[in-house]
Fold this protein.
Amino acid sequence: MATGTTNSENRNTVDNAQDKANKAIDQGAQKVKDTAHKAAQAVDQAAAEAPQVVNQTVDTVSDRAKEVVDRAADTVKQTAATANTQVQQATQDMVDRAYTVKTNAAQSLRQAAQSLRDQVRTTEGEPVEQAEALGASLDKMAGYLESTTFDEIEKDARRTIQQNPWQAVGVAAFVGFVTARLFGNRR
């Protein structure tokens, strides 16, 4: 009898162990199912949120790009405004210098005319007719410089060159020769 009891006890023990194992497997399977279900929900939620996250990221990048472009545009505008101001100032400075040179040239012509009249005299102390005529011409040229603008001088020069092209070439050659002689010896 001891063997029959032992077999039935062993069988009960095996059955109990098998029941426990089945319960543990069922519980483990249920946990796996629950975890898989939670993971599937998390994946679904992430998939649902992904376009929103991508859109937010695109919006953020787009906003930052717009800020950079706006700053660059502002910098370009400021640089252009500064350059424009500098060009206007340089232009005004050149115009002012040109008028100063024109005024100085007129004064020099008047002084040359007066010096010519004072210094060129006959042996009897009377003025020389040619020196008087040259002095009058220098005074007339000084008056012309004082009373005309650069635009008027340019128009007059163009008209004179068109009416007397060969004389203009001769005058230009003479001025070039004199300038070369004056500045050529300074080397």
About this structure: Residues 37 and 95 are 86 Å apart (CA to CA). The first helix runs from residue 2 to 119. The mean pLDDT is 82. The two ends are 142 Å apart (CA to CA).
